Structures are given as C-alpha cells and as structure tokens.
Amino acid sequence: MQSLSGKRILITGAARRIGREIALHLHALGARVLIHYGVSAEEARQVSSLCGGAPIYQADLEHVSEIQAMFARIEAENGGLDGLVNNAARFTRIHPLEITEKDWDFIHSVNLKACFFCAQQAALLMGKNTPPGGRIVNISSMGAFLAWPEHVHYCASKSGIVGLTRALAKALAPEITVNSVAPGVIPFEEANDPRIQGMVAATPARRPGTGREIAEAVAYFLAASSFVTGQILQVDGGLGLR
Q1: What single-letter DSSP state applies at residue 98?
Q2: Does residue 194 have a cis bond before it (omega within 30 degrees)?
Q3: How far apart are CA 77 and CA 75, in angstroms?
Q4: What is the 3-state secondary structure (H, E, C) of 130-192?
C-alpha cells in the first residue's frame, strides 16, 4: 500500500453526504484534497475549511466544456493530479412508465456521462506525471446489482459505471488503475424513511452503513498497488448476497 500523503486527489460532489466523508477521510490520511461542487457552495466552503483550506472547484458536470475547464484549472493550480474519486451523482424515484427523456438525461448526464469525461480528463493529467500514473475510483451503487423498480434510470446509470470501470481499467493499464466502490444503504437525512428502514432490515449486517466506511474503501483503492484494477467492491453489509 502506498501512502496518500501529499497526493493530489479530486473528489467530485465533495460538498455533501458521501463525498464530504471521503474528502474528510482522505485529508486525515494526508492527501491534498481538491473539492468539487455543483451548487452547494456554502457546504463546499465548510468542507474546504475542515480540510485545511483545500481548493474548491465549481463545475456543472452536465457540460463537458465545464469539466474540461475545471481540469485545466486543476493542472494550472496544482501541477497535475494523482487521484480522482468520481462521486457526484443524482437520484430520483419515478415509475419507469412515467420516465421522460428529460428525467433520463437528468440522471445519466451526471451519473454516467460526467463520470466518463472526468475520468478521461483525469487520465490525461495523470499521463503527464513523472512517472506517469494515478488512481481513479468510481462510486457505483448496489442499484447496479439489485432490481429497484422505481429507480430503473438510476440503476441503469450505476450499472453503466460498473462496465465503464472495467473497460477503462483495461484501457488505461498499467499506469492508471480504475476501480469502483458500490455502497449499500448509507442514509443521511432520509434515515427514517420507511423504504430505507426496509432495506436496512434486509441487510444481513442488520444496520445501515456509514459514509466513513465508504471513504475507507475508496482510500484502499487509492493506496493499493497497480495490481488491483478493474475491481468492484460492494460495501453493503451483505445486502447483495443471494
């Protein structure tokens, strides 16, 4: 395992929820975290403060031009990049027969399209490192493996992350590793939702997971050797067991 001390690591969607926990944990491990946010400016500033004044980057990930501009700023201000955590995502609940093109694009433009283009831009920067190399970790979901009838569009996007991770791992080897963490039930303000409680009851661990537990899995992939690539780690308390 390599040290994360001083490693320049961008976390997308780092202002809230799991992204916030990842940023705080990586900072505690000595990484130079870079905070991306879309609309949660105040929360991003709070995370930055907790991470020693970490630099903040705003970008609407729906637009590839904004992704490219963000990575250009990162290169100019940090001299490169060592790691990317593709965490930013959207989640909506709609019956599949009521999903519109706008609903579909709302989810996929960030959950899948932006994930790819962030990985692309990160890989281009990592290729300039001396020696070339880096780590990419994509946050998927147990929705990629379980059938959630009112989240078909979301499940499709997260299944896409799994395929994207595996294909990119092969395409970018050996210098850059690409892995994915698939969280189970990690509730925040929605912890008392009956649907969430039902999923917790179906989890063999008999409890929900925490953002810190996802952050620890992300840190493992960021620190692991280049022999660990193309892997999907389900951090789900056994929810996906059959």
Answers
A1: G
A2: no
A3: 6
A4: CCCCEEEEEECCHHHCCCCHHHHHHHHHHHHHHHHHHHHHHHHCCCEEEEEEEECCCCCCCCC
First CA to last CA across the chain, in angstroms? 32
Exposed/middle/buried for residue 220 (C-beta within 10 Å: 0-12, 13-18, 19+):
middle
pTM of the model: 0.95
Over residues 114-144, the pLDDT tens digits come to: 999 999 999 999 999 999 999 999 999 998 8
- How far apart are the C-alpha atoms of 58 and 205, rounded to whole Å? 37
H or E segment and range at residue 4: none
Catalytic residue ranges: 154
Decide: 210 and 182 in contact? Cβ < 8 Å: no
